[in-house]
């Protein structure tokens, strides 16, 4: 659940604003980028220009400067610093006409954050600090107003009402929730005790393939199309919820037969792990998918709600978006606990 955000290097200077107010406004934009943003630059040169602005712009309070520096490191590590393709010669800070801005950035960014001094020539209303129109990308905003720009507001609305309604198309859930997080990720982990139950039923003839629908290969097909080249996906399920005698090898073979990955794809490795609770050690109850881009989705009812083209559960499918480091650390702890219960992980052979 990310918006692509381009920030002009001269947009960081909030002028003569009182330091506490400037710090708060910088903080709001930084928080929005950390939770829901991908930074987009026209070129490597513009990225260097932005880094210099963070270090040297006099109008940035010290606390905000430190937070911007930390943010750049976090987004870079998460793979959420991106560049226009193909690179553009003009940087956002030099664009002085709305037609030129939208022609250059319309397909690259969802929000363009511009300097207050440039807002009048770009047609940004002084009272709101945001210029937005249906069908016209990107939203254009000054730094103080950017966190409330429509592109970010839509994501916040989705986070505040996190349900895929009964009968809704699972492709919509993919496009609006999972795809933005998966794009460019080098790793993803899916933890769900019942993740392989339906596949096991198919492998043992209780469901008739290929007519039986399921969710694991559907997820893999979609992840294979948008994750970073050479990416890894780890699938972790509970051995107590598959047919007795089925192991990771059986599950992996069933996935391979049903998925039949294309020779051209993004994934280099898919790991299958079956954790078997024993000696008082339990398999984690919560179900989630976590991405290396720095966010995750918890699905309390489980990912099998995505097994059919439309959400079959009359209650819909509720989910929770997580991005705070402490919450992600808790998910990693669950993953490690499940991994310790898995004896013989299996990796799918992807011939690419």
Write the layout of secondary structure elements.
Blueprint: E1 3-7, H1 19-36, E2 37-41, H2 44-56, H3 62-77, E3 81-83, H4 98-105, E4 111-114, H5 116-119, E5 130-133, E6 136-142, H6 150-160, E7 163-164, H7 170-182, E8 187-191, H8 197-203, H9 216-226, E9 231-238, H10 248-259, E10 267-275, E11 288-291, E12 295-298, E13 317-318, E14 320-322, H11 325-339, E15 346-348
Parallel strand pairs: 1-2, 1-4, 2-3, 4-6, 8-9, 9-10
Antiparallel strand pairs: 5-6, 7-13, 8-11, 10-15, 11-12, 12-14
Helix pairs in contact: 1-3, 8-10
Q: In summary, what is this structure?
A:
This protein is of the alpha/beta class and 352 residues long.
Can you walk through the features of this model?
The chain is an alpha/beta fold. The chain has two domains: 152 residues, no CATH class; 186 residues, Endonuclease, Chain A, CATH 3.30.870. Helices cover 36% and strands 19% of the residues. It has a seven-stranded mixed beta sheet with strand order 14-12-11-8-9-10-15, sandwiched between helices. A six-stranded mixed beta sheet has the order 3-2-1-4-6-5, with helices on both faces. Strands 7-13 form a two-stranded antiparallel sheet. The longest helix is centred in the N-terminal third of the chain and has 18 residues.
């Amino acid at each position: 659940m990310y918006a692509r955000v381009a920030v002009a290097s001269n947009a960081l200077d909030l002028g003569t604003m009182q330091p506490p107010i400037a710090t708060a406004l910088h903080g709001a934009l930084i928080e929005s980028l950390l939770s829901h943003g991908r930074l987009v630059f026209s070129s490597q040169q513009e990225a260097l220009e932005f880094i210099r602005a963070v270090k040297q712009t006099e109008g940035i309070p010290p606390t905000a400067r430190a937070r911007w520096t930390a943010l750049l490191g976090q987004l870079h590590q998460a793979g959420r610093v991106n560049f226009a393709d193909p690179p553009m010669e003009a940087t956002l800070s030099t664009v002085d006409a709305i037609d030129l801005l939208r022609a250059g950035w319309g397909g690259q960014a969802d929000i363009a954050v511009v300097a207050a001094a440039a807002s009048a020539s770009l047609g940004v209303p002084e009272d709101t600090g945001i210029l937005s129109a249906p069908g016209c990308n990107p939203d254009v905003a000054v730094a103080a107003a950017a966190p409330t720009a429509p592109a970010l507001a839509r994501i916040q609305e989705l986070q505040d009402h996190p349900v895929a309604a009964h009968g809704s198309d699972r492709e919509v859930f993919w496009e609006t929730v999972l795809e933005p997080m998966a794009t460019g990720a080098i790793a993803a982990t899916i933890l769900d005790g019942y993740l392989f139950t339906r596949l096991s039923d198919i492998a043992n003839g209780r469901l008739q393939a290929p007519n039986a629908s399921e969710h694991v290969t559907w997820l893999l097909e979609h992840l294979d199309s948008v994750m970073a080249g050479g990416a890894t996906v780890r699938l972790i399920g509970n051995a107590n919820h598959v047919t007795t005698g089925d192991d990771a090898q059986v599950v992996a073979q069933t996935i391979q037969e049903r998925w039949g990955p294309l020779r051209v794809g993004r994934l280099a490795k898919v790991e299958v792990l079956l954790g078997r609770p024993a000696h008082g050690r339990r398999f984690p109850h919560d179900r989630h998918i976590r991405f290396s881009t720095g966010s995750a989705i918890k699905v309390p009812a489980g990912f099998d709600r995505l097994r059919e083209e439309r959400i079959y559960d009359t209650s819909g499918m509720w989910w929770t978006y997580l991005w705070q480091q402490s919450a992600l650390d808790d998910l990693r702890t669950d993953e490690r606990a499940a991994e310790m219960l898995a004896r013989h992980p299996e990796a799918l052979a992807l011939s690419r």
